[in-house]
Amino acid sequence: MKKLFLTILLGIVLVLSACGQEDTKNSDSGAKKEEKKEFTVGFGVGTYEEQFRQSILPILEKKGYKVDIKTFSQNMQVNPAMKEGSIDASIFQSTAYMEAINKEIGSDMTGIAYVPGAPQGLYSTKHKSLDDVKDGTTVAVPNDPVNQERALRILEELGWVKIKAGAGTADFNINSMEPDKYKIDIKILDPAQILVSLQDVDYGVVNGNYIANAGKKITDALKIENTPMQHRIIVSINKKDENTQWAKDLKAAYESQEFEKYITGIEKYDGFILPEAWKNN
Known about the structure:
The protein has helices at residues 2-34, 48-62, 78-84, 95-105, 145-157, 191-194, 208-213, 245-254, 257-264, and strands spanning 38-43, 66-71, 89-94, 109-114, 121-123, 138-142, 161-163, 177-179, 185-189, 203-206, 223-224, 233-238. It folds into 2 domains: 38-117 and 230-280, 3-Layer(aba) Sandwich (D-Maltodextrin-Binding Protein, domain 2); 121-226, Periplasmic binding protein-like II (D-Maltodextrin-Binding Protein, domain 2), CATH 3.40.190.10.
């Protein structure tokens, strides 16, 4: 009987030991995942890569991170790269745009921090005033639904067009609007092309990061957008990475006093919308 008891006891000890080893193994595996020190960030065209290289990257490098930077010639290439895993984070899009793409391509991205972003503005090289508007006035607007909706909201605020009731954001198109005070001739262009095409139209709604990137001032706009939160630029990651340490450190870098000092100390960022988190700095 005693021998049987010892045999059972030994079996229990061996089972518990194996469980403990497995827990330790899992724990170590989790720790290694949390301690990831290399990741890749993707950017579209604009000033956000410059901000990252000059201020965010040094902050992360001080914490021991190695960050690869990928620049895409077209914004539409960034999110598919996130979904397939060739980049871990991106800085170029708004919450509204991200949510629209999540539905479109079946991705699962989330925003973790707001980025100093440039509002859209109405610019012209032909006119010095908005009073020159009349029937037949040509206005260039972005071709993607989210930025096009933003642009036409600016024109709506001026009374130039009306946005139809129930018009969405992700599925917005030119048929979502109708004339108001004037019969405006809307020209639909790639967002990056509008600034260089201003000589061909009367007015153009330009995303502010292109203005800043061209060495021009956002405050030179004839009308500046009052950008709602859903259209402000964010740091995007895949939701599965939301609780990783590298994502937390990336968020902290964008909300840091060091980054705030960098942005507010450069004239080209005058007029940018600053993150709400900086109010606590």
